[in-house]
Amino acid sequence: MKDTSLLSLLDKHIRTLSLAIGERHSGKPEALDSAAAYIEHEARKLAQVEVHTYQYRGQSFKNIEAVVPGASPQSLVIGAHYDTEMGTPGANDNASGIAALLAILNDLKDYKPELTIRFVAFANEEAMYFGGEGMGSLVYATALKKAAVQLKGMVSLETIGYFTAGAGTQSYPEEVDAHRLGLSDVGNFLAFISDLSSKSFLDEAHRQFQLFQTTPSAALAAPAEVRGISLSDHSSFWKMGYPAIMVTDTAPFRYPYYHHQDDTPDKINMKVYKNAVLGLTAMTAALAGKV
């Protein structure tokens, strides 16, 4: 896809989710359903789609799965959540992740991978549901485990659109010795994060991203108890024993509008974000292999 076409596609998805639909969570069920319907509609243009509906506390929620079939029984999951925190339109958190998910699917729709690639948009990642039985990614990961699905790993695309060149714009959890690890205080990079058990998958994913992209990036594997390490859908897969990582701009450690009413499309650095998506597309193809 040409850069201008990709930029337009990403912008369309982000604006539709954050402006046309806006705040989307169980307290605004019509908006949450509209977001799910939009993602399903866009995905059905590109691939086989299955909508996994589940019930929780009297409400219905949907995980939307688009599949690019592979030759082997093993799978790779690329996921992102489509709900928002209350009171925010969620342009960066997490329309940026969903837009990237759909763009990667668009580029790889005719790819012939060794592994089956499962692109999944999850409901209910945010605080009210995080870590609980109603969390969409936990429902999905539990179903994979129950079906004995072989999984190479899962990549969670979480808040990936804010980049800045200012010194002192990047912070870290207090448990992380940024100076000793050589981590920058400039928030201009994409972070690849995992727990210690997923380090091998983390290293492979980060290496493949670096091979195809000049966007600055950094990788960190740390104990799951470190603040922020587990804060996305990848942690649901850890609970099922699957390798999983988070790709992020680090959200609260950088983004001033995290869980804020001003999390709007104008805050996203579209040029850097677009280049990051190109790298994530190449990374996905490399992780899945080719027949």
In short:
This protein has helices at residues 3-21, 29-44, 91-108, 136-146, 178-181, 199-212, 234-239, 270-288, and strands spanning 48-56, 59-68, 74-81, 116-122, 150-158, 190-194, 217-221, 244-248. The chain is an alpha/beta fold.
Features:
single chain; 291 residues; Aminopeptidase; 8 helices; 8 strands; 20% strand; globular; M28_fam; M28 family peptidase; metalloexopeptidase activity; Peptidase_M28
Q: What does the average pLDDT come to?
A: 97
Low-confidence stretches: none
Beta-strand level of the residues, as a percent range? 15-25%
Main sheet attributes: strand count, strand direction, barrel closure: 8 strands, mixed
**The CATH topology:** Aminopeptidase
Principal-axes shape call = globular
User: Helix tally?
Assistant: 8
Helix content: 25-40%
Rg: 17 Å
* Series of H and E elements: HHEEEHEHEHEHEHEH
Distance between the termini: 22 Å
Protein structure class: alpha/beta
Number of domains: 1
Question: Largest sheet, order of strands side by side?
Answer: 1-2-4-3-5-8-6-7
CATH architecture: 3-Layer(aba) Sandwich
Please identify which CATH superfamily we are dealing with: Zn peptidases
How many β-strand runs?
8
The CATH class is: Alpha Beta
GO biological process, one term: proteolysis
Organism: Candidatus Obscuribacter phosphatis
GO molecular function: metalloexopeptidase activity
Domain Peptidase M28: 63-275
Task: Characterise the protein shown here.
This protein is α/β, with parallel strands linked by helices and 291 residues long. The protein has one domain (3-288): Zn peptidases (Aminopeptidase, 3-Layer(aba) Sandwich). Helix content is 37%, strand content 20%. It contains eight helices and eight strands. Strands 1-2-4-3-5-8-6-7 form an eight-stranded mixed sheet, with helices on both faces. α1 (3-21) crosses α3, α3 (91-108) packs across α8 (270-288) and α6 crosses α8. The protein is globular and about 45 Å long. The protein starts with a helix and ends with a helix.
